[in-house]
Structures are given as C-alpha cells and as structure tokens.
Amino acid sequence: QVQLVESGGGLVQAGGSLRLSCAASGRTFSSYAMGWFRQAPGKEREFVAAISWSGGRTTYADSVKGRFTISRDNAKNTAYLQMNSLKPEDTAVYYCGADHYGLGSPGSQQYEYWGQGTQVTVSS
After folding, report:
1. pLDDT at 29 over 90
2. In the chain, at which residue ranges do the beta strands (DSSP E only) sit?
3. Torsions phi, psi of 30, nearest 5?
4. What are the beta bridge partners of residue 11?
5. Worst-scoring range by mean pLDDT, 20-24, 27-31, 118-122?
6. Of the residues 45, 52, 70, 81, which has the maximum number of CB atoms within 10 A of its CB?
7. Under 8 Å CB-to-CB from 79, ≥6 apart: which residues?
C-alpha cells in the first residue's frame, strides 16, 4: 500500500555530511510516522531517528543526537535524514520505515513498510 525508496547514500570522509531521502507513494504520506534505522555488517538493526505523523515530535538515538536531523516534506511525500559530522561508526545500510499514525517509536516492529535501504560509508 505504501512504497518507500531511499536515496542519497554514498561514500563520504569523516566529518562530512550527507542527506538521505525517503520518497513515499500515495496521498496518505502525512498520516505516517517515519523512522530511520541502520544496520552494519554483523550487527543488529538499530534505531537512528523518527518523526511523528504530524511532524511535531522527533526522536533520536543518543549516538546521533546533535549530528543528525530528521525532517519531512509532506508536499513532496518525502522524509529526510540530514547527517552532519559523520563518523566511521556511522557506516551502515540505512532504511526508512513508515508507521501509520505513529508518534515515532524506536521499535522497528511498529513500522509497517520499509524501503530497500541505501548504503552510507564513512572513511577516515
């Protein structure tokens, strides 16, 4: 029912910036909380950031707080993750998820739909 496509990943040096995008289909985009998760090789998927369906509440993992910013543009059916001051430990595949009328939970099981992921690699 909802299709999500991530983009914007790539290779960047430590201290640099990237902006990830998650484009969603349909006119119901504004009804979904959007979350960003990441998974590094050999590690569990972890929560990064989320924004409520209304856009009025954001949540961040402690590891990215102050460096990453989640936002959404409902007119473009797109959620974003602005990543600044990137560190090598940020290297992972980043996924976006959608949670209908969600408030932005860090629990991955809350999200009904997922994108295919985009690779972020941060070099020293």
Report:
1. no
2. 4-7, 10-13, 18-24, 32-39, 46-51, 58-60, 68-73, 78-83, 92-100, 113-114, 118-123
3. -65, -10
4. 121
5. 27-31
6. 81
7. 21, 22, 24, 34, 36, 51, 70, 71, 72, 73, 96
Find all residues with CB under 8 Å of 114, minimum gap 6, and list them: 4, 95, 96, 97, 98
Other Cβ atoms closer than 10 A to 101: 10
Contact 50, 59 (CB under 8 A): yes
AA identity, residue 52: S
Structure tokens, 109: 């099981």
